[in-house]
Amino acid sequence: MLTKDPSVDRTAGLPAEQTYYIIDFDSTFTKVEALDVLGEISLIGRPDRDDVLAQIQAITDRGMSGEISFTESLELRLKLLHAHRDHLPALVETLMGKISDSFQRNAPFLTEHAEHIYIVSNGFREFIVPIVTSLGVRAEHVFANTFVFGETGEIIGFDPENPLSANGGKSQVIRQLNLDGEVYVIGDGYTDYEIKASGLANRFYAFTENVMRPRVVEKADHIAPSLDEFLYHNHLSRSQSYPKSRIKVLLLENVHPVAVQLFEEEGFNVEIHKGALDEDELIEAIRDVSILGIRSKTMVTRRVLEHANKLMTVGAFCIGTNQIDLDACTEKGIAVFNAPYSNTRSVVELAIGEIIMLIRGIVPKSNAMHQGVWDKSAKNSFEVRGKKLGLVGYGNIGTQLSVVAEALGMEVYFYDAVDKLALGNARKCKSLDELLAIADIISLHTDGRKENKNLISYREFALMKTGVIFLNLSRGHIVDIPALVDAIERGKVVGAGLDVFPQEPKTNNEEFVNALRGLPNVILSPHVGGSTEEAQANIGSFVPGKLLEYINNGSTYGSVNFPELQLPLLKGAHRLLHIHANVPGILAKMNTIFAKYHINIHGQYLKTNEQIGYVITDVAKEYADDVVQELKGIDNTIKFRLLY
Ligand SMILES: NC(=O)c1ccc[n+]([C@@H]2O[C@H](COP(=O)([O-])OP(=O)(O)OC[C@H]3O[C@@H](n4cnc5c(N)ncnc54)[C@H](O)[C@@H]3O)[C@@H](O)[C@H]2O)c1
């Protein structure tokens, strides 16, 4: 039994019983052109195989464009193929593995509507019948050409009496079928459109899952990037609650190409823009967008969100989310994700590199050499092995740096505001002061919360050992710059690496103004700790991963504004996702509805934050359409979604 689709209005459109579906075979039912595949098999071992295959394809194209008649193109191709009856089992086996994805996943539609489904193709019954009957289509509903075999089994031609061997053949077959009802044609070729053009079909759907022919698409009543789209358009049961091709993804600010690829592979409709959009442009662009991907420059304001009625989720392809009005997103039931840890390793590597450069005094030596000075000496130059590294903040970066530094033979000490488990042989300090007094090298890795402003100032520098190396690759305001300058000038700090600053230039054209400029053995870098190609690629795949889990499964793990739920994969059930304002009693109301309709609940998950509640209910597939309407009608519902 096919599952009912409770999200559709069944009064719209004709009942399925009065509709006939005419489906093309090559490049529609299967992903490929069967005669091309037959050539690949029959020409094996021939030195001119590639040339002949190219000729066959050229003839196919000439036939399609009307340059030669279809009959002529068939004759020419069969001649070149040198195919034999013995090649057919291998052809069928190959084609079995090339059935279009959306046909495979919607096999129940083909079985349940077998009485009304016809395959009408200019291909050959010998290979079409075994393929389509495997998904429930009736052999007697297949209309196609038949091969003529020679005495020893070689394919020498086709039955010329068969209308499908000539132009206009499809229309002739359908006329003879004399179908009493609506006729819908699904195909990728011009000959499929011609059925409608000759008045024998009510609608022509251009099927573009495998090939997109502009001349055909132009003539279509509707474009079907998958069979799901066709079924959705006709209010029929299907494998996907919502066809993926209908999900529009808008990616701004040159997000990494890997993200574009991941969304396209998923079957989504992806639009990309190199730059950011301003508020008005974004308002215009976002109307039919379900997934928005941005970096740091696009401002997702409340005004923008008011126009984003289809928006389900926003992905920030960066660390920060200040550019997004998170409260407004939450109120509208839009889940926001970012990529907090994709550049952890990059920061760690830069820290290690700087520690070694600083403790060897390489920067002043290099600068001197650029001035022609050769100063070979081991004075004040040390190994990192055996030195005490003090980490302030033992989060993602701090812990990873701890592990890498130990591998270099350093002794690691750390202090974190929260009690953290020590990795490897690292030693926990009870206070910041204790850590500052012990370490030869101090590296800051706390988060940027307001209270951390000037965490390291005159008092803290005074507590450090003389000759300490000091690094800040976390956030600029954590260090009191005049205090650091003072410590460097007095010889307390003999080397410093700074990647972040209280005031940073907003663009590359602005001057960097800071009292640290010109001080000896100080490495300054323009906030690039996390900026590597690898980190960008990590972000490019991490964020789509989160967005896809949310869209396909409902999981919100890692969301910055939604209650976090990691859900099991959906199997053999329908998943109802209900987002509502966090007021008491919603779950009870939902369960009253489930009880009223005797719905068998497979699993239920609830999580709330201050603003919203998120309830996921997995239910058995059969239920009345009214259930969904009642769930949507519960007061304070923000968004409702159905997955299967
Ligand atoms: N330079 C760059 O390009 C770059 C790139 C990525 C991250 N960062 C910055 O690096 C820092 C660390 O990143 P993360 O991913 O490890 O963050 P995280 O949140 O995983 O870890 C921060 C840790 O600091 C601790 N902490 C906060 N305040 C503290 C205090 N006053 N004393 C001691 N511990 C304190 C927290 O408890 C937490 O364990 C952040 O400030 C982040 O913004 C910089």
Automatic annotation (TrEMBL):
Belongs to the D-isomer specific 2-hydroxyacid dehydrogenase family. The keyword NAD applies. This is D-3-phosphoglycerate dehydrogenase. It catalyses: (2R)-3-phosphoglycerate + NAD(+) = 3-phosphooxypyruvate + NADH + H(+); (R)-2-hydroxyglutarate + NAD(+) = 2-oxoglutarate + NADH + H(+). Signal peptide: none annotated. It comes from Spirosoma sordidisoli. Pfam families: 2-Hacid_dh, 2-Hacid_dh_C, ACT_AHAS_ss, HAD. CDD domains: ACT_3PGDH (cd04901), PGDH_3 (cd12176). Its EC number is 1.1.1.399, 1.1.1.95. Residues 575-644 form the ACT domain. Keywords: NAD, Oxidoreductase. InterPro entries: ACT-like_dom_sf, ACT_dom, AHAS_small-like_ACT, D-iso_2-hydroxyacid_DH_PdxB, D-isomer_2_OHA_DH_cat_dom, D-isomer_DH_CS, D-isomer_DH_NAD-bd, HAD-like_sf. GO terms for biological process: L-serine biosynthetic process. The keyword Transport does not apply. It comes from the Bacteria.
